[in-house]
Amino acid sequence: MASVLSQEVSSRRGVSGGVGKHLLDVITSGMYSDPRMAIREYIQNAADSIDQASTQGLYASDNAKIQVTVEGRERTITVEDNGQGIDGADVDGRLGSLGCSTKGGSGQRGFRGIGRLGGLAYCDVLRFETRRTSREPVHVVEWNGDALREQVSHIAGHEHLGDAVRRIATVGTRRADRATDPDRFFRVRMTNVHRFHSDLLMNVKGLREYLAQTAPVPYGREEFPFAESIEQHLGAVAGHKSYDVVLNGVSVIRPYRVEVDAREGLVDRIRGTELVECVNGRGDLLCRGWYAQTGFLSALPQHVTMRGIRVRQGNIAVGDEYFLKDLFAESRFATWHIGELHVTPLLKLNARRDGFEESQEYEDFLEWASMLCRRLGGLCRQSSKDRSTQQSVERLFKDLDRQFEIPFFVDEEHARQFVEGAELRLARLRRLVAAPDADRQQVMDSMAARLAKFKDHPVLLRNTLDGRALRGKDNRQLLVDLCRRILSVDHGESASAFLLEVVGPYLRGQKGSSGAGQ
Question: Where are the beta strands (DSSP E) in 331-426?
């Protein structure tokens, strides 16, 4: 590839004495709380470029593609699109300057003019390459991150900031390479990417998960059968589009699946989706979205990347799964849910794209979202209550089943106590079990019939004893036989206490001894 860059650059539009040194400080120290947000920014710009190309009829939108390539050995990251590209006459002003953007009020996703330099904090060199037609050379702008950081620390108080920028950004052209340079494209390349924390930028698996949550990528139709109805619902939201984002040769899709790992050993399912809409008092559509109908079993673990009600604009994430947590009566409920709220451009993003500027529209949205979160919190509480009821029902059924296993009653008093206790449990079961549960209603009716039989005709021990087995044995021998049978059953550590409880009243000198059998 030819690499002939001109060191003679034209004047920097957008870098003037009015641009403070703090602007370079922001760029060099990192604009984002997560370095992967820089990649999201480049994908956002690529989506805008694709929209422009589609509007101008340069191609059908379904032919558009955004390619992200992570090369671990070389420690480079490249984001390339086949959108509109940038006209050669505009390259210097738009890519070689600061704070110069043509997007303000255009309805496009990016509009601040400095986001394109967001990756500079995380690499040594940030390189932009573009052209609009096959007749043009490739226009190249290269920002030297090391030089920029050096300049920021040594800029003299009297020096014009534009002069400093001229020494760290080069603008030029090179001959196109037919094998690697499409007729129309825009490419961003971060060279010698820095290690940051756990090397987030170079972790392909982690980057894929991040882009699946934040980038304007489609739902997986096979993995998420509710995708079509959701897409139809979101079609009315201005700016809602999905793009083919390919990371290292594999398309990225949203993380939604039917099965949900609620917590260790417990799996929940998305049974359906509830579609929602926010329209303010002036009739303006502010938001459309959806939330999943699940069992609401617990807060979803962090590895479940679809957890939370995610807020998006232009189909790109705003903040993370905790964006709405302060609107829940209990903030822990923020991660019990799955869903998305897609807001319209009437809500204005802040510069970091993690929130919105204060406005009446944003206030209207928050008021509506607060009501939604109260409803969602109520679903969590009701789910907890239902699970508690279910556990009580299971326990009562088990208790009754165990009691019904007894083949006889010791005497009439034993029979009376059994029937009274079973009737109380059965009455509680009838209060807890909902009428539509026909199977359990049938089991309870069967138990009630057996109780009525026990009550009218109890089977007593004295009527079931085998006289032949008792013939020739006195009371002492019977007690010894009973103790042997007790010891033959494994009662664990309680065996001795249980044995003493049975024979204690018949032992000499024992407190409470009835003297029976003496």
Answer: 338-343
97 contact partners, CB below 8 Å, separation of at least 6: 12, 13, 14, 15, 165
Q: How far is Cα 364 from Cα 273, in angstroms, rounded to an integer?
A: 24
Considering the domain boundaries, does residue 390 fall inside one? no
Q: Does residue 245 or residue 502 have the better pLDDT?
A: 245
Q: Are residues 374 and 436 located together in one domain of the fold?
A: no
Do residues 176 and 71 share a domain?
A: yes
Residues 155-164: pLDDT tens digits?
555 455 566 6
| Separation CA 480–CA 9 (nearest Å) | 109
User: Within this chain, do residues 76 and 164 fall inside the same structural domain, yes or no?
Assistant: yes
295-to-54, 226, 268, 308 alpha-carbon distances in Å: 42, 17, 6, 15
Amino acid at 443: V
What is the number of structural domains in the chain?
4
The pTM for the full model equals 0.75
Q: Are residues 306 and 442 in the same domain?
A: no
Which domain, by its residues, includes 127? 21-202
**60 and 123 assigned to the same domain:** yes
* Per-residue pLDDT reduced to its tens digit, 257-310: 999 998 777 899 999 999 999 999 999 999 999 999 999 999 999 999 999 999
Interstrand relation of 308-313 and 338-343 (parallel, antiparallel or unpaired): parallel
Same domain, 260 and 327: yes
Q: Six-digit token pair at 63?
A: 């032919």
Amino acid at 384: S
> Distance of CA 38 to CAs 55, 81, 302, Å?
26, 16, 22
- Same domain for 426 and 347, yes or no, is no
Residue 9 lies in a domain: no
